[in-house]
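May I ask you to comment on the folded chain given beneath this request?
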Amino acid sequence: MNVDDIRTITVGSGTPVHPEWPPGHAGPTWSETEWRSFGSEADNRWFGGTWEGEPGTLDLPAYPYDELCVMLAGRVALTDEQGGRRVFEAGEAFFVPRGFQGRWETLTPSRKIFVALGPFTH
């Protein structure tokens, strides 16, 4: 390995991915793009990069992996099935455990750095 194996992690660098969710899970205004800079779901260990999303909601019956998130811009809220709610904004980092059930709400146009840890279950 050498310095060419080091990946830049910025919005717009990497491979753009538009995750698909089962019908009825994403609200009508849900819009997101992942810019995957490293790793792969295919190896079932990890992948990551940046993410950007517009205001909208996504209902999660079970989060498909462990994920570390570092907010770069905007605000998001996660609400669990019991009604507990947490809001995260630019400059904050948080961890979402695999299996979390609830709602992801992008409150304002947002960007984050993320690392998804497998094994992946979706």
User: Anything to note?
Assistant: The beta strands are 15-17, 31-40, 46-54, 56-60, 66-73, 75-80, 85-89, 93-96, 102-106, 110-117. The first strand starts at residue 15 and ends at 17. DSSP finds no helices and ten strands in the chain. The two ends are 31 Å apart (CA to CA).
